[in-house]
């Protein structure tokens, strides 16, 4: 009898186990069906009803990682960033690790929402971030921006699409060339002009008579690039145009086609009253080069306008004429910050041996602007130009009293890109100055160290954050995740 009772007890226990397993499967099956329903509701933008169902699922099963994942999709549409990140935390806790593919999806979503910002600068910064991240995920967004009302946004989007090797079809380019919209016409000419497989075509000469100056300029550039000498007479005609920009680009095209007499127009523009025209002439001379170009640019170095001086120094460095080194030395002490940096970089590129020593001395200068410019230049040059002592000094400047110096120090160390500085960047995330924090975020994204993911997620969670800060933080996380092999 006793054996019979034991046997019955065993049968009962087995029955209970199977019963509970069946209930569990039934519950899971029911939950899965509800989640499928939620997915359909989200697709139809019936978000209120989807939210109710998710609330009930999570109430009954607080460990339902799938429900939290589905609610992330819901919060993404509602732009509830903080709640979205809270749910990500719960998923990571339930699964016992960072969920990098999911986090990447969240970061890309954060970046994508910035395309809808009304601020032109935010849109442009978003396009730059997307280009930097090199994610084809954003190609449809970039294509949409080609129709943006702001032409600068269109230009940035077009440049990004080119890097993704996404260009309009020939049929679409023909359509754009014949459009009433001047940007469309300009873009068609630009794409044809930059396409090595396209020879000089009639559309280029036709565009020389366009009513819009930007279309004419792209046509002039295209004819110069293609080496179309049949356009020489047309370009000479444009030397008499009313618009000074057209004259200068026509002169550039003629120089590229072998008409050296056109230098006269470019050199003459260096004496124009309009500093924009002087700057354009300097830039074009940097592209054309030539025997007397550096000699003529030396006279521009004494300009009162700091932007003109800076452009002249940058162009001289590009041309690589070492004879100008003595003339550049005094500009390392120029009153303008940007001019000083350009002078240091130019001298370094030209091989002036005293530059590095001057920079080292600048790190200890009492003037915060000199310390800042010295740090910035060292970052651009890289660690190969300095010893460990200077690197240690730059790290010490992360604690400088002046925020401009701290910003420069973080930026410089970020460019140098040593993982040994991750600890310093993490400290900089807590700096009282927002620009220092932003530079630290950018630096951490460049280095790609996974140990800072949690800290960057916490930064994203903050409600008071500039659009640029949000974009750069999401970009940094995206880079780190990509460096971890998640594509």
From TrEMBL:
Pfam family, one: HEAT_2
InterPro entries to which the protein is assigned, alphabetical: ARM-like, ARM-type_fold, HEAT_type_2, PBS_lyase_HEAT
GO molecular function: oxidoreductase activity
Function: Catalyzes the hydroxylation of the N(6)-(4-aminobutyl)-L-lysine intermediate produced by deoxyhypusine synthase/DHPS on a critical lysine of the eukaryotic translation initiation factor 5A/eIF-5A. This is the second step of the post-translational modification of that lysine into an unusual amino acid residue named hypusine. Hypusination is unique to mature eIF-5A factor and is essential for its function.
Name of the molecule in the record: HEAT repeat domain-containing protein
């Amino acid at each position: 009898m006793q054996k019979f009772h034991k046997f019955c007890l065993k049968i009962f226990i087995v029955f209970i186990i199977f019963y509970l397993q069946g209930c569990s499967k039934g519950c899971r099956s029911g939950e899965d069906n509800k989640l499928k329903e939620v997915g359909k509701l989200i697709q139809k933008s019936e978000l209120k009803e989807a939210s109710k169902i998710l609330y009930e699922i999570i109430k009954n099963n607080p460990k339902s990682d799938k429900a939290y994942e589905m609610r992330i999709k819901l919060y993404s549409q509602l732009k509830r960033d903080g709640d979205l990140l809270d749910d990500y935390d719960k998923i990571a806790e339930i699964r016992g690790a960072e969920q990098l593919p999911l986090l990447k999806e969240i970061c890309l979503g954060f970046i994508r929402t910035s395309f809808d910002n009304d601020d032109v600068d935010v849109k442009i910064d978003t396009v730059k971030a997307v280009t930097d991240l090199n994610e084809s995920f954003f190609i449809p967004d970039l294509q949409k921006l080609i129709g943006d009302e702001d032409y600068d946004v269109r230009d940035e989007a077009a440049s990004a699409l080119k890097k993704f090797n996404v260009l309009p079809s020939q049929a679409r380019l023909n359509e754009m060339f014949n459009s009433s919209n001047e940007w469309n016409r300009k873009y068609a000419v630009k794409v044809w002009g930059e396409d090595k497989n396209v020879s000089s075509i009639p559309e280029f000469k036709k565009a020389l008579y366009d009513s819009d100056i930007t279309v004419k300029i792209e046509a002039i550039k295209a004819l110069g690039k293609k080496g179309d000498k049949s356009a020489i007479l047309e370009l000479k005609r444009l030397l008499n145009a009313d618009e000074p920009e057209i004259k200068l680009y026509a002169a550039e095209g003629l120089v590229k086609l072998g008409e050296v007499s056109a230098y006269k127009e470019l050199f003459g523009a260096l004496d124009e009253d309009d500093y924009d025209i002087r700057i354009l002439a300097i830039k074009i001379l940097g592209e054309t080069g030539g025997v007397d170009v550096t000699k003529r640019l030396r006279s521009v170095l004494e300009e009162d306008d700091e932007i003109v001086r800076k452009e002249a120094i940058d162009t001289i460095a590009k041309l690589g004429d070492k004879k100008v080194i003595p003339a550049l030395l005094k500009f390392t002490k120029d009153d303008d910050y940007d001019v000083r940096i350009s002078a240091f970089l130019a001298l370094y590129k030209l091989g002036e041996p005293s530059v590095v020593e001057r920079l080292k001395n600048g790190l200890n200068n009492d003037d915060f602007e000199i310390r800042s410019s010295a740090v910035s230049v060292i970052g651009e040059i890289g660690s190969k130009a300095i010893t460990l002592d200077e690197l240690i000094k730059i790290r010490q400047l992360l604690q400088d009293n002046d925020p401009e110096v701290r910003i420069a120090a973080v930026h410089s160390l970020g460019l140098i890109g040593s993982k040994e500085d991750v600890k310093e960047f993490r400290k900089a995330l807590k700096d009282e100055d927002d620009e220092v924090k932003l530079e630290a975020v950018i630096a951490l994204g460049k280095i790609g160290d996974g140990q800072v993911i949690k800290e960057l997620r916490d930064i994203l969670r903050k409600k008071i954050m500039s659009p640029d800060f949000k974009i750069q933080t999401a970009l940094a996380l995206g880079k780190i995740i990509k460096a971890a092999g998640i594509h």
